[in-house]
Amino acid sequence: MPFYGLGVALLLGLLIGLERGWKDREQAEGQRVAGIRTFALIGLLGGVCGLLAQNLNAVVLAVAFVALAVVLGWAHAVSQQHNTDVGITGVIAGLLTFTFGALAMLGEAALAATGAVITVLLLGMKPTLHAWVRRLEKQELHATLKLLLISVVILPLLPNEGFGPWQALNPYKIWWMVVLIAAISFVGYFATRIIGARKGIMVTGLFAGLASSTAVTLHLARLARHQPGPCNIYAAGILLAWATMFPRMLIVSSLFSQPLALALLVPAGVMTVVAYTGAWLFWRQSKHQAHSDQARLSNPFELKPALIFAALLAAIMLLSHVLREQFGDTGTYLLAAASGIADVDAITLSLADMAGNDLRIETAALALLIAAFMNTFVKTLLAIGIGGSQLGRRAGAAGMAIIIAGMAGWWLFH
């Protein structure tokens, strides 16, 4: 209905105009190029032109858009005589308002509303976005571009079919998994930078563990060796980092196989609860303030490590078929144990991709738990060997409790 479309167009103009008017609320009347009324009228103008385009010709819409661009551009140029702000955000916002009004009239009200809300959010977040840009380091910008390169450019070009023995090597799936792991580390890195920067060991363990719980273990263990006093805090930070591994396994598994994620839910959930409980107990026992040292995580994405991960993942996918051919399920368990020494992400992605097709759900779930047990055991040894006896006793007891809880969770529910 025309009235509905015009109403939506007017409301969207009012929404964007509200943000623009609030931003320039300190300026005197008549000094603003466009305020809440002007943006509301621009939205309504877009709706009217959309209606005319439906009844007459689409050229009407194009001509009106160009005419509005000329008017807004001229008004902006005139305002520069009294204002040193050379930004054209207001002009672009006006053109978008017109476009959203036209979309609403042309039957795309939901799309127009979504675009208008996103526009308002971007306009209102100017200080936050500019602060992020100022804090962005060169290596982080390069990391962002590299992540976009491997995900937006390279991934669509790869063939989505199996190659090699047993058709085990699918370039698209292997690279998609690389993108997934890189993105998880990327998010974890910036979570540490934005939320956890210099906020203490607990925040370090919680957020830096998203990128690498092993890196957090090594860092906090070294701090514990040099500053042995607050071992309870270091143990709590380490356990928080360890606890992130189990939900991450569930999330990654669920992306490929919901039944596998359900099979892992109880044991992984029990291990998560035990790890968080241990962290909470150590935190309560601590009488020292958390240190401001932050895990010195390296840049979250480099091309060379990504390629190494792809090679490792391909080797694991191939070896999983070889070992299963030779030893059946036992070969899969051996592979999981060997992979868990260094990392659980590669084996999680590999087995999750095969679960339910080339591999039984129960076998894949047990193999992933074996990898998690082995990885937890290795990190426990690192904490004991590097952190000294005080941290070692705490990490050793917690690590054994996590592994025993996971085994009990599996045996009781399978």
From TrEMBL:
InterPro entries xrefs: DUF4010, MgtC_SapB_SrpB_YhiD_N
Residue stretches making up the MgtC/SapB/SrpB/YhiD N-terminal domain: 6-131
Zinc-finger keyword on record: no
Annotated keywords: Membrane, Transmembrane, Transmembrane helix
Regions that span the bilayer: 6-22, 34-53, 59-79, 86-104, 110-129, 141-159, 174-191, 203-221, 233-251, 260-283, 303-320, 364-384, 396-413
Keyword set includes Kinase: no
Chain ranges of the DUF4010 domain: 179-387
Record protein name field: Uncharacterized membrane protein (DUF4010 family)
Organism lineage string: Bacteria, Pseudomonadati, Pseudomonadota, Gammaproteobacteria, Methylohalomonadales
